[in-house]
Structure formats: structure tokens, C-alpha cells
Amino acid sequence: MLRDQSVGPTISKLYEINWLLITFIYLLGMIGVAMIYAATDGVWSHGAVQHLIRMAFSGGLLVFVAMIDVKVWYNLSYLVYLFALILLFFVDIFGITVNGSQRWLDLGFMRLQPSEFMKLALVLAMARYYHDLPAWRVSKFTGVLGAILIIALPVQFILRQPDLGTTLLVAATGLVVVFLAGINWRVIAIAIGSAIVFVPLFIKFGLKEYQRSRILTFLDPSRDPTGASYHITQSKIALGSGGVSGKGFMNGTQRQLEWVPENRTDFIFTVIGEEFGLVGGFITMSIYAALIGLCIWLALQCKNMFSQLLILGLTTTFALYVFINLGMVMGLLPVVGVPLPLISYGGTVILTVMTSFGLIMACHLHRNSELPRGGGR
Amino acid sequence: MSDADIESQTLNRRAFFLAAGGLAAFTALGSRLYYLQVIRSEDYRVLSDKNRFNYNIVIPSRGRIFDRYGAPLAINKQNYRVVIVPEQVKNIEQTLDNIEKTIPLRTATRKRILKDIRENAGFIPVLVDENLAWNSFAAINLKTPELAGVMPEVGEGRYYPNKGLFAHTLGYVGRAGPRDVKADPDPLLRQPTFRVGKTGVEATVDKRLRGSSGRLKVEVNAVGRIVREWPDPKDRAQAGEDVYLTLDANLQRRAAELFEDDSGGAVVIDVLTGELRTLLSMPTFDGNLFVTGLTREDMVRMNSDEKRPQFNKVIGGGYPPASTFKMAVMLAGLKTGIINPYEQITCRGKVPLGNRMFHCWRPRGHGPMNLRDSLKNSCDVYYYEMSQRIGISNIAAIARQLGLGQRYDFGVSGQTLGIVPDEEWKRKRLSQGWRMGDTFNAAIGQGFVLASPLQLAVMTARIANGRAAVTPYLVIDEAVPEFEPLGIDTEHLAMIKDAMWSVCEEPGGTAYRPNGLGIKGLQMAGKTGTGQVRGISKSERLTGVLNNQNLPWELRDHSIFVGYAPFDKPRFAAAVIVEHGGSGAGRAANIVRGLLQRALERDGLSEKQETRKTSEREGQEL
Asked: What CATH number did the domain enclosing B200 receive?
């Protein structure tokens, strides 16, 4: 192709970037800027500007990650996973405690949250694992054990921090990849059966008091009207009082009067719902749905298993973020600290999410690449 | 089919499952949002408003009190205060500690705050402190973001611009006590920042002054701080009615000046209408102290003062009227026909009764005295003699007709009934029979007879008026009293008045001063009195009665004077009692004279001040 030769491979890759995906990402990012602006009573410097800058810079990161050949990511995947695992181990030993959870590593110039990093690393490792694993071994005991090890190692570290939300997110993503890899329905049935037995036991003995309380309040909101369920109640009032068309931009009273705490971060959807009503909520959700659907479609275009599993795994993480956050805000799920990706204020999440989309884009741009298969190993 | 193909088919199928799962999740979330925002929307809108709005009781401005010319007697002043809403405070003790860093709180205040919090519903604001200096108020305002539930407010507090000048009559306001709350269902009384009248006019016309509460819709945020107000004209508080009194602030001030540091009471009353122009009890106390909260020191100081500043002497103090009672004796004598005004009785300074000796104030006696002379010289012996003939029941009847021995309903409580003694009274109260000696004592206004300065003023006004049984009137717009006819023969009254004139305007009268009133062309009439507060022993009489100056203050005689002016067309009557003020002719007469003078000037009945000054100079030259 003439263009390929005259402008070089990088430029040609830029040309091939899926601009629809970028458009969806930035639509959500701009909704985020507007809503953070509203949530902070119209003070640009209280988050809106930062969000805008982060979106812009992480766009560069996205493109940078996308330019790197998927072969490189394939080769690096275990290394990245190992690195993330070591960081988590360090958190367990040296981490700083904020609000009762030990989640951060203080690097002096910045604070790192390795569990965020692990969300990517795990998907990379799982994709590589199943790419290398011959199909006939997927449902064999050793195949299942390998996958479970890859998932369980980071999960137990994150649970100890403790960070229930991320734990569930990481574990669920890992399991979805196992499912996509084509594991036998029989194994799935056994897994679900044992989950029914062990999850209640886990809730009883494996959780911290506040985590248990959140789950119990979720099940029975009248337990504690001003404590844990206060969040959910006020959040529902904000959404419900918004009605179909909302109270108008900057006019949300629940927001203005600070009835909904954390409405710049985890509860930002209440601002959308209150000020733009059902219309605003549906538009936002549609963009998310389109973005997720587009990613699934992109996955199916890829020619190698690694890319397909990587895209689907990362998309799953992203979708779970969205579902858990919206479910929580609407009172369908217990309050776990999960932000609404691309809209909520918060640096680490943007970084993780944009890197994921970078990886997705990398898979897409190199969809025809041939990766070596482990064949008979 | 190769392994890879089977693999990719499986994956495609499973990706489809994933997509389907995602769609299901979005559908679930979408339905939930629809449920919240469409189906339950109304409920949540109501809840949102409930979050958002509160109704606060708005305390009405208390009606002001003015004197007859519109001079302010009781007004409302901006009052910087801090209240605390208990339900919004997590840790009361800690919050109070924090407040204390800016506003020092007394231990008693702290106790009171905690008690108020215990006793009231959590949403009722409790007063922390009020009447703050601007500096402390500004400082606490700066700190409110850290003090949830603590609210600085600008309210209104009662203020008495004349300090103590009207304290006894006006009374003061305070927080409604448990008894007030029980007796009155008005929810305002339960507001800790609301004040009700406790005593005096503030208490008697409290309902008029109170106004009615309003309510204010306020938008509050999650920590209860008011973000915005949504005033509705319909809900506005109705300020209390302003009340005007018949008093004349200028005249009242003049009375206080004339009293200087002395103790007692002064009344100036309109002879025709009964309007009280002055109603002063001395010394006074600053009513503002009761509004801002009395300190222990203030309390101790007031209670230990031998002049009893809190006691409303002008209406509540019962004093022996002394010689001012002689008018009643004269009228009784004339009415019964027992006194012939021209009959002379010779005063030798004393009269024996059984084995007791009754003395005239003048030890060597007045010589022959007729009715007019007896009053002019205040001869006691004449009245001993006459009272013996008239009998106590006739004297008591006239005294009552003149207004003694009763209370008047003009809006200030705490009036003494006084005593107009007779046989029945003594039998009932002391279970003793009446003796002639009691009549002798009563004839010169001593013994059992007691009257307040107010009652003496009413008596004087009735004599001066001549036709109507004048009663005092204080709160303008309250029902104007309709006077009963006095029912005393005008000819008899004319004789009395002529005698009272001679006291003041005829050389030799006990209160004579050349051009006594000091106003050209106007003359006054009056009567002196010296209220004895101690018995004088025989031995003391022998060695010479001690001069008042040589006695300790509390044993000195009360100085009493009643009078009215102008003599020919009476307009104002006045009565003054100076506790332990020495001889009647001195202290009290001077005060009455000064008051009548000022009252007539204020009423335009006299010529300009210059005239008075010249006449004063003339007086000195004489």
C-alpha cells in the first residue's frame, strides 16, 4: 500500500485507530467534567479542571500503549503480572493506611495503588495463560488449578488490605476470562455449587465488621437509617426527585445541600440523575453500552486468542465497574467503593481505564498479528 | 475442523453470552432507573423537599413602650447571640468547650444550657449566650464551619433606654418560666429566645406587646445550616402593638433628680383625668440587668441595700400619712357637723388622755386654733380634740371616700392596700377593742394608718378635683376609667382647700415660701407630713427630742408632702414621701414644688422659663 510506505507504520496505525471508541471515551469524559463541575458547586478548580487535564494526558497514554505491538504485550504479560504481585506484597508490608485500609504504596513523589494495576496485570496473565494452554487442557484439573492460582494470589492480597470492591472486581474478571476460555459447563456447575456453600461462610468469617454491616444494611435498609444506608437513601432521593427531565444543570437541591456525600467521586451518577433526570441517565448508560458493545465487537475481529481474551477481559472489568457503581447508586447493590469509570473524579482510575483502552486498541491495531501457540505443551 | 477453529467458535459463543449478560445488566439498571425516576418520582420529590426545607418559628418584635409624648421607655435593640440546635450536635460538652475558646461561659450558664437541652425537644434552639460584643460575635461566626449545630443569630433584645428611671413601673422581661408555659399554650413561650413580661406594665399588657409568631421556610443543608431563606409574606411574624403610657419622661427624670440619693416615692397625677404623669420609686434599679441576666454580685448589692431599690415604694410602700391625713379628719368633722370651722381650741402643746400624754409637734403649743389655722400650722392638739368628738368610724369613712385603703387597677401590680383603721378593722386584725388613744393617733395620721404615695396622690387629686372620685390611669387605650361622683360637700372642700392654700402661700404656713411655686400668677396648695418611725420616750421629751440629723438614717422621720396646682384651677396633684427625709416642710415639699412647677411648664400652663428665673431671683432677695 502506497500510504504505508510513504508515511511509515506508526502513522498508518494512527490512521487505523478506532475513532468511534475514542469518541465514546471522550463523551463520557466530558460528561464527567460537567458533572464534577456541578458537584463542586461550579468551582472549576475543585476537580473539573483536573479531570479535563487527566483525560487529555491519559489520551496520550492510550495512543502510546496502542502503538506497541501486541506481541510485546504478550511477551511482557507474565512479567507485568509478577511485578504487580510484588507490589501488592509490598503494600501488605509497607503500605500506608488511609481510612482503615492499607491500599497505597508511598513512592515519595506519588502514591501508587497496586490493586488498580493488578486489574490490568491479571487480565494480561490470564489471556496469556489461556493463549498458551491447549484447548483440551482448559477443563482438566491442572488447567483449572493454574487459572485459580493466577487469580487467587492477587485476590488474597487485595482482600487483606481490605478492599472488598476491588477483590470482587478482580476475581470476577478472572472468572469471566476462565469462562470465555471455554471451560466446561460441568466445571462451571461444580464451581457455582461450591460457591453457594462457601460464600455465606465467607461472609460470616472472612469479612471485616464494616463490610458485613454494609451487606446487611443493603439487605435491610431500615437497620441503620443515618449510618451506612444513609448513602443509599439519599442517593435514591436524589435520583428519584430528578424525575424524567431532571431539575436542570446546577439546580440539583440534593447536590447543592450536600445531602449525598461523595457525589464528586463514587456517587456522581446521582448528580446526573438529579439534574438531567431519566433522559440524562439513559443517555449516559447508552454510551456505556455502546462502548462495551463496540469493545466486544473489536474482540471478535482479532485473529489470536490472546488479543481476544485480553479485550474481553478488560472490557469485563470496565463493564463491572459500571454495573457495580450504577447498581450501588440505585440501591440494587451494597455500597462498595467503586467509581463510575471516566466520569468519577479520581486519577488512578482514569489511568487504569485509559491504559486498558490502550491495550484494547493495541489488540485491535494488531488484530492480524500471529502469536505463537503453545500447541502440544 | 482444527482445534483453533473449535476454540474460536467456543469463544465467539461465550463472547455472545458475555454481551447478553451485559445487555441484561443494562436492562436491569435501566428499569431500576425508570422505577426510581418515573414511578416513584413523586415520593422522592417529597422526600427531597423534606430534606431541603425546614420551618423555623419567627419570633415577633415585642411592642415598644412610649411615654405620652412618644419618648421611648422600652424598645428593642439588636442582640448578637449564639444558639445551639442540640439534634445537630454530636458532642455537646466538646462543642461547648470549643465555644468557650471564643466566648467565656460561666459555670451557671453552662449548667443552664445543659438543662435547657435536656428539657426541650432536640430541634428547639437553645440559647448559649446573648448580648455579645461585636468582636466575639464575629469570632464565633468565623468558627461556625467547625461547630455543627451552633448558630450565631442577630435577634432582638429588650432595652430600657432610661435605665432605671421607669424600672418599677415598666417591670422587665425574662424567659417564660414553667408556670407561664403551663398557663399559656402559645408555642412562642417554648422558644428559649422568646421573652415575656415578668413584672410591671411589661407583664400586665404582655399580650398586647407580644405580637404573633411567624414562620420562615428555610433551606437547610445536610448539616442543618441554613443556606437560603424563602420568606412568604403570609407567614411573617406580627410585631407586637406599641403601648403608650400617660407618663411624662421629662417630668419623671425631674423627680429622680430632685430625689438625689434619697429613698421614697413620687406621684404626679392629672387632677381632671387621673393620668399619672410621674410614678417613681427611688432608688431604682437598671431593668436592663434583668434582661441580660443578673449576676450574683448585682443581686447581692440590690438585696443588701438598706434603701431596697427593688421595692416599688410608690405603690407598694405603706407609710403613716402623718399630718396629710388631717384633711380627712377635717372633712369628717364638717360633714358630721361636729366641727364648727370658727370654733377655737387652745393648744398647750399636749393633751392628757387617761394616764397617757399626747403631744403636739410644737412642744410649747400653738395657742388658740380654729380649723384653718390648725391645718396651716399642722396643730396636733386640735385634731386630738376634734377626733375625740367625731369618732373613728366617721374619719375612716371619709378617708376611704378620698381613696385611701384601696388598690387601683391601672396596670401595675404590687400595690399595697394601706390601712384605714376603725373599730371593726382592729377587732378583726388584732382581736382588740378600739381605744381612744388609737383615735388620737389616727387623727394625726400615725398609729395604724398606712398609705402609699399613690393613695395620697389620689386623695389630693380628689380634694383638688372636688367633684369626681379620680382614679389613676396609666396605659393609654386601656379602658378610660369613669369616675364616680366624689360625694363630698363642695363648700366643705372649699374650706379645706383654702386651708391647704394657707399652708403654702400664707406666711407662717408650714410649707410657706414666698412665691412658692415660682411661676408668676400661679399658686399652689398642699399639706406637710412628718411620719414618725419611732416612739419618743418620756425621758427623751424631758431632755429634748433628738434632732433628726442626730439620728441614724433608718430612725429619722419620713418626709411627706401632698399638694396641687394651680390653686384656683387645679390641674396636677402630687404626693411625695421621702423615707427618713426629716421634716415634711423640707425635703418632700421641695420635691412636690419642683414637680408641679415642671408639670405646669410642660403643659404650657405657665409662661416661659425666663419668668420663673426672675421670680426665683425675686424670691431670693426677699
From this structure: 3.90.1310.10
